[in-house]
């Protein structure tokens, strides 16, 4: 039987390994100079003023909420079409969560649905978290304008979108948001094994992120005490990333353009190869250029198609079960029918394999298996 094809996979080369080995042979293993270099590299790539590296993307979301003052009595709104971390970060802070339905074409938070909800809601959210699903940027100009008008903060969950562009500028510059969050999980665009980052333009927000990242401790408070002195100013966390992870990330970032080029080639090739099959291909908005973390099609009889492809060694997946339908969120009062566009999307969504080392022959095999499952064997 042919080797199984996963839906996503990291791409590690000799330079990545050498970078990590270099740290192992250095004086620093935890948070040190490699972390600072990685932060500068990501900030420079994105046009951001500040970048704060942390242990994973979920941690970055939690710190972003804390840095913006989210707490009991507040509410965070996000999209139901995301991983649970985009909503859980509010609950970690003791805040409430609500959702805004998706645009059925882009699968991202609908700016018009957000505006409608803002006008009808009795309480304005403290934070809105739009998610750049599959690597395609949300309508950030519209969302940013609504934030200015209604007085809420914006945290871009760009976990899928390292290297994406919006209106000709890189995602991560925080032009329309207060904080942008990245994930460096192995299946994402670049990896640090586990890792995340929060980017900000406001220096006070960045200082707050750094303080909370390291137990809430400030080591520069006193000018009279010795070098051992520190003060815990707030209840923070040990959310630091290691130099090992940062070295891998900095090395990976050097290949970001190559990763993006191959992902976009594969996405365009899927578009061509799937054009005659009875399915819906992912639509792209003219304002953005996706990083193509995921390639999601919509098919009828999704369970049958999923099972057939899995049996053929094709590691398809589904992104995402709407968050409001998870048991924990149902206990908070959400129910089927609350966000119909997200639920309709989920009922047919199927994620096809997409990663830089996916070969044309592998992709042909995916398409052939999918065509056979759809009754269009080639």
Question: Could you describe the 3D structure shown?
Answer:
With 378 residues, this protein is an alpha/beta fold. The protein contains 13 helices and 14 strands. The protein has two domains: 240 residues, Aspartate Aminotransferase, domain 2; 118 residues, Alpha-Beta Complex (Aspartate Aminotransferase, domain 1), CATH 3.90.1150.10. α4 links the parallel β2 and β3. α2 runs parallel beside α8 and α3 crosses α7. The mean pLDDT is 96.
Could you outline the blueprint of secondary structure elements for this entry?
Elements: H1 14-24, H2 33-46, E1 50-54, H3 57-67, E2 75-78, H4 85-92, E3 96-99, H5 111-120, E4 127-129, H6 140-150, E5 153-157, E6 165-166, E7 169-170, E8 179-183, E9 196-200, H7 203-213, E10 217-218, E11 231-232, H8 243-253, H9 256-273, E12 288-289, E13 295-298, H10 302-311, H11 327-331, H12 340-348, E14 349-352, H13 360-373
Parallel strand pairs: 2-3, 2-4, 4-5, 5-8
Antiparallel strand pairs: 1-9, 6-7, 6-12, 8-9, 10-11, 13-14
């Amino acid at each position: 039987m042919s080797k199984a094809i996963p839906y996503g996979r990291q791409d590690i080369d000799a330079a990545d390994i050498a970078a990590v080995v270099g740290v192992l042979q250095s004086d620093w293993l935890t948070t040190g100079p490699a972390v600072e270099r990685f932060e500068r590299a990501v900030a420079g790539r994105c046009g951001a003023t500040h970048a704060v590296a942390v242990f994973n993307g979920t941690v970055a979301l939690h710190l972003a909420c804390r840095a913006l003052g989210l707490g009991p009595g507040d509410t965070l709104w996000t999209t139901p079409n995301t991983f649970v971390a985009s909503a859980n970060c509010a609950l970690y802070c003791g805040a409430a969560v609500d959702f805004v339905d998706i645009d059925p074409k882009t699968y991202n938070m609908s700016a018009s649905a957000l505006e409608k909800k803002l006008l009808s809601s009795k309480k304005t959210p403290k934070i809105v978290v739009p998610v750049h699903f599959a690597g395609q940027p949300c309508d950030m100009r519209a969302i940013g304008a609504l934030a200015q008008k209604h007085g809420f903060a914006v945290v871009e969950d760009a976990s899928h979108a390292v290297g994406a562009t919006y209106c000709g500028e890189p995602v991560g510059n925080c032009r329309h948001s207060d904080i942008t969050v990245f994930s460096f999980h192995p299946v994402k665009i670049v990896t640090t094994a586990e890792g995340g980052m929060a980017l900000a333009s406001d220096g006070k927000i960045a200082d707050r992120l750094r303080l909370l990242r390291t137990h809430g401790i400030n080591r520069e408070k006193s000018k009279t005490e010795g070098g051992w002195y520190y003060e815990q100013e707030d209840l923070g966390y040990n959310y630091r990333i290691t130099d090992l992870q940062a070295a891998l990330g900095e090395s990976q970032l050097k290949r970001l353009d190559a990763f993006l080029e191959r992902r976009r080639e594969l996405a365009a090739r899927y578009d061509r190869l799937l054009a005659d099959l009875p399915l819906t291909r992912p639509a792209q908005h003219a304002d953005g250029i996706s990083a193509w973390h995921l390639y999601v099609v919509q098919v009828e009889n999704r369970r049958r198609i999923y099972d057939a492809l899995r049996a053929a060694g094709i590691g398809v997946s589904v992104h995402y079960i709407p968050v409001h339908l998870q048991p924990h969120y149902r206990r908070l009062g959400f129910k089927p029918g609350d966000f119909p566009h997200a639920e309709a999307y989920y009922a047919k969504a199927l994620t096809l394999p997409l990663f830089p080392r996916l070969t044309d022959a592998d992709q042909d095999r995916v398409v052939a298996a999918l065509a056979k499952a759809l009754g269009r064997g080639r």
